[in-house]
Write a structure and sequence with these properties.
About 25% of the residues lie in helices and about 35% in strands. The chain is an alpha+beta fold.
Length: about 90
């Protein structure tokens, strides 16, 4: 996310540039289920009232010799949410 002046803005006003998607709890839960069905350790975390996300847990890092957790991108959440095996 970056900042820039919009055309016609006063130089004191800086607006954030963001392509952030709003993830729903349902999308995140479906993505977690799909990831877990494929053997990943995943969890749905709500950081703020409208900030839902999916975290991959226990991802091993050979260089650091430890496991880490990280949040996946919203585009990946959307992709995994439709991969749920509801058949």
């Amino acid at each position: 996310m970056g900042n820039r002046l919009a055309e016609g803005d006063d130089e004191q006003v800086v607006r954030p540039i963001s392509n952030h998607r709003i993830m729903t709890q349902e999308q995140c839960e479906r993505a977690v289920k799909a990831l877990q069905d494929r053997g990943f350790f995943a969890s749905h975390i709500q950081g703020a009232p409208r900030d839902h996300g999916v975290w991959l847990d226990s991802v091993w890092n050979d260089a650091l010799q430890e496991s880490l957790s990280f949040r996946i991108h919203d585009e990946e959440v959307e992709w995994w949410a439709v991969e749920t095996t509801d058949k």
